[in-house]
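User: Hi! Is it possible to get a structure for several chains at once, not just one? Here's what I have:
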Amino acid sequence: MSEQVPFTIEQFCKWASQGKMMGGKCKKCGKIQFPPRPLCDNCLSQEFEWTEIPTKGKLLTYTVIHVAPTQFQSIAPYAVGIVQFENGSKLPGMIKGVSLEQIKIGMPLTMQFEACATTGQWPQWPRYHFKPS
Amino acid sequence: MNGKPLVSIVSAGLSKFGKLEGLYTREIFALAAKEAYDRCPKLDPKKDIKALFVGHMGESYEHQGHTGATVADWAGLLHVPATRTEAACASSGAGLRAGIYAVLSGLCDTVMVGGVEKMTHRSTAEVTEYLAMASDYPFEQWNGITFPGLFALMATAHMNAYGTTEKDLAMVAVKNHYHGSMNPKAQIQKEITLEQALSSRVVAWPLKLYDCSLITDGASCVIITKSELARKYTDTPVHIIGSGQASDTIGLYERESFTSLRAAKIAAKQAYEMAAVKPEDVDLAEVHDCFTIAEIIAYEDLGFCKPGEGAKLVESGETRLGGRIPVNTSGGLKSKGHPVGATGTAQAYEMYLQLTGQADKRQVKDAEIGLAHNLGGSGATAAVHVYRRA
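Assistant: Yes, the chains can be modeled jointly so their relative placement is included. Here is the combined structure:
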């Protein structure tokens, strides 16, 4: 976890491909930037240290996508939601491993990492989803 | 500013909204421009219009960027400085703000502000993908969240927090289709029933087809001038007395609340203060009903009701024509249509018609103060303008 590692979206993806959720903690004001950014939106500092984000959290809101963009048509309908992790950071992602009818706001979810699974022109970023804890 | 006019609208134009087959973006814009020229014979467009701002979101639709110069040429306005303004679905709301900057700076006495989008020649999947560009790519689009999906996330949160129901959402659609049935330029000029809305197919639960605005071709424009010059061009100008615009995080997930849009609240506060009016002074409003939930949240963000009471307000009938504060008399994005870049100034066009008494069957009686609320993306941009009859 060298501090020379840039605090960027690309680096977020690299961590994710290693099965880690990492954010940047501002050394000046202490705000955790997650996903990481190179400039603190609070105090405008560029000095960060890496901090691991807990992968357990709860579901804040969700939807079930029926009309999907081309890349995701084969798996529709699918659920996506916004999850708040135990440290307060938030991230959206698909919800799998539970029937669509059983998804409820507030339910505990855990992030799961997976290999990149889409095809086509989209960048081959690592993928993740949420499943019931 | 205390309610003094910032600028005045002296004319306005709107193409038919709908499927405009065989027409390119630039040709559609020319239709709106021509109506604005014809409505204001005392204005010489070639001599008097000193700049053009045109809202246009997507170059993907026609593989055509550089919209400013392109539509300036087709509108007969060469060689004015012509600039495209892009803020997703708030492209021309932000353009209107830019036009106000231009006039108030003193650099231009009179400018045209408009917007245009040509969408219907693309498949639904393509349009879904292009519209999603207004959201966060690496974290939202990449996880399969569509544009309706973002507003569905807000709808689920609103339902959970306040008990808003799918039926409440459908009532917004029914009302706006009723209004649209009286607008000869609307894409869908017919009423729908609550049952139809509720039984339409799911797009992004809890949002169904009738909760979503339409895929539309269309263009809109207004001609704005320094208020002291307005009477030179027309006896019936409409004053813009308040303007607000704000930004927020591109990703919905980063926000504190999913049941309210902070940018809209900030923009509204700015516009109300500048106009020296309160929400209860507003006689009619055009709000950004890209999805039915967005209209309910708009009521709350604009102060037409308290947070959480948006559903009650639509149920009360107060936002229907004849009610206390009719909202989206044009039919809104829901029924009039939503050619995204054109929507901001299409709202200004409705304000112009209403506040000059030219809205025919959908005229709001004795309308004096109007408000327009235009959103970009999932609320990362909001532009709010307050209008007053001259």
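The two ends of chain A are 28 Å apart (CA to CA). The interface with chain B takes residues 9, 13, 35, 60-73, 75, 77-78, 80-82, 90-94, 105, 122-123, 125 of chain A (CB under 8 Å).

User: Great, thank you!
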